[in-house]
Amino acid sequence: MPTKHAESAAEKIARLREAVGQSRNEMHLAEAELAKQMAEANAFEEIVAARLEPLSNELTSIENEVMLYHEQLERQQNRCLYDEGYPSIDEQIRNANVVTQQLVPSQLISTTETDKKQLRRVYHRLARRYHPDLAGREFDEVQLNDRMSLLNEAYSAGSVIEMM
């Protein structure tokens, strides 16, 4: 019987060097393919960015227009709830922030009679809208009770902003 020829160390090293060389060639080919795909991806990203930029600008313009319409709607709603010339809630918040920064803490406590009347007037309008006994069947009674309790808390605190 013929005996199997045992691989010598030199043959083993030569075989392994050949495998390493072949692996290096495969790696270089894969790196070249990767570089090509990355270049294609970058080119695609540039095309997408060029096409999306005008759409993004248009979307920003539309969003700004929607914000303006929202502000107009809010002003219209405020005109329905408040007397003419009464500042909107946003204006009240801005004014309160400015005034609060300028006042001494003892000055913050006092409220004028006009503010109390206006608070009462807003409370009554909202109470007519959300009181469970006076409101129509638009809302569930539980929701109306919750809204009314929140409205009462805000009125007790003297906050038009919380009532809204």
Tell me what the structure shows.
With 164 residues, the protein is mostly helical. The chain has six helices and no strands. Residues 103-110 have low confidence and may be disordered.
Task: State the main characteristics.
164 residues; mainly alpha; 6 helices; 0% strand; elongated
Short description:
By secondary structure, the protein is mostly helical. Helix content is 79%, strand content 0%.
Cα gyration radius (Å)? 37 Å
Fraction in beta strands = under 5%
| Percent range of helical residues | over 70%
Q: Sheet bearing the most strands, described?
A: none
User: Average pLDDT, to the nearest integer?
Assistant: 78
Low-confidence stretches: 103-110
CA-CA gap between termini: 102 Å
Bulk shape: elongated
List the helices and strands and how they pair.
Layout: H1 9-81, H2 89-102, H3 105-108, H4 113-130, H5 141-157, H6 160-163
Helix pairs in contact: 4-5
